[in-house]
Amino acid sequence: MEQELTQAVNKIHQDGALGVVAADRQGLCLAARGTGTSSAASFVSLLAQRAKSLSSTAESPVVVIEADHFNVLISQQSDVTTAIWKQA
Questions:
Q1: What is the domain-level CATH number for residue 43?
Q2: Best label site of 31, 39, 45, 76, fewest CB within 10 Å?
């Protein structure tokens, strides 16, 4: 799984994302590229978990943080939370 995750994170970053972070349920960084630093892993994992607790459906919501020059998209699938920094 580690190699597949690394390949996926690399591809997202190479396809134009400013940064990418993948974290486990405990907030430990599994991979980070670009502006997505390992220090953000616990924060994005917690945001995804809190957003899911607000939802009444089984699907995980996508959290979007909008800033002046970039957006961050945060989603949790299975045991991995992914955050993608994109140019606004």
A1: 3.30.450.30
A2: 39
